[in-house]
Write a structure and sequence with these properties.
heterodimer; A: alpha+beta; five-stranded antiparallel sheet; 7 helices; 9 strands; 44% helix; B: two-stranded antiparallel ribbon; 47% helix; elongated
Chain lengths: 262, 55
């Protein structure tokens, strides 16, 4: 960042870039949330078997098995006597065969216990995701208005016609010169030679605040368009250079971009 | 307003008018927004330009 240079841009280009970057950022933030929301919803909507494969960590299964049976479960494993009642209670819906026979977990009991554990884990994880989804719904970031301020140093740039012969001489092939190509050069003096006869009177409404006597001029879009057309060939542009925050000058221009939802 | 200030004001208006296509492009994407740009420049009155989709 120490090499960062504060460079000048045409005023319109600078503000346009600021506007674009701000809007892109807000739209991206909102789209990210919508994508995350959709992903979570899609996960919750998955069938339990698929959800188990995609979102339940095998380590979580081992941990739950150990919690219930004292160790990861296996067919015909010896079930500690103090855990048998708990396992029988968990698998009470499985009544077709014995779950535990002669202190051993039967094949049927193994399948029953696995089904119970898988169902528990899927239900818990889906409930957790649903809670997260509900929180997102409540706290979803919606940028409906905003304000961006930038301190600028404005200056006038004079656009001169390129010397075609010089351009040709500078070119590598020496054959072509692009006609109409212009370059920018700083100059304040030319202000005196441009736009002298222009006027702002047409399409302008002036309103005066009754209390403060402050005047406000309103220009419609067509007037602005005319202004642009009138100055389209103007050799003068205003350039904007952002001021670093460390700048202590009290003389600077400021541009404020506001947007709101109506 | 001095001629120099008037020239500066017109240049600034021309720059703001150049922003029209940018603002209009965003209003096509977000038609429910109002965009305004306010410029404060020493020696000139504050300028505010606002874009909104016409109904």
């Amino acid at each position: 960042m120490s090499d960062f240079q504060y460079v000048s841009l045409g005023f319109a280009e600078f503000v346009g870039q600021l506007l674009t970057e701000t809007f892109e950022a807000t739209i991206n933030a909102q789209q990210y949330q919508l994508r995350r929301y959709a992903e979570l919803q899609a996960a919750i909507d998955l069938p339990d078997e698929q959800f188990l494969l995609q979102f339940i960590d095998p380590q979580l299964v081992f941990t739950r098995e150990t919690l219930i049976a004292g160790s990861p479960i296996a067919r015909q494993m010896i079930v500690p006597p103090e855990r048998q009642a708990f396992i029988l209670e968990l698998t009470e819906e499985f009544e077709e065969e014995s779950v535990i026979f002669k202190n051993r977990l039967t094949n049927y009991g193994f399948e029953a216990l696995r089904a119970v554990i898988d169902e528990q884990l899927v239900d818990e994880q889906k409930a957790s995701l649903q809670a997260l989804l509900n929180r997102m719904e409540q706290a979803r970031l919606v940028v409906d208005s905003g304000e961006i301020n930038a301190k600028l140093e404005l200056s006038s740039l004079y656009q001169t016609a390129t010397d075609a012969s010089a351009e040709t001489a500078a070119g590598n092939d020496g054959k072509t010169a692009v006609s109409g190509v212009k370059r920018l050069a700083a100059s304040d003096a030319v202000l005196n030679t441009t736009l002298v006869n222009s006027t702002l009177s047409s399409g302008v409404k002036e309103l005066v605040d009754a209390e403060t006597l402050e005047k406000t001029l309103f220009l419609d879009g067509a007037t602005l368009d005319k202004t642009l057309a009138a100055t389209a060939d103007s050799p003068v542009r205003i350039s904007a250079k952002p001021l670093p925050s460390s700048n202590s000058s009290s003389v600077y221009s400021q541009v404020t971009i506001r947007f709101k939802t109506v | 307003m001095t001629p120099a200030q008037q020239q500066q004001l017109q240049l600034l208006l021309a720059e703001l008018a150049r922003l029209g296509p940018v603002a209009e492009a965003w209003l096509r994407r977000q038609p429910d927004k109002v965009i305004s740009i306010e410029v404060h420049t020493p020696g000139l009155p504050p300028l505010t330009v606002e874009w909104q989709r016409s109904s």
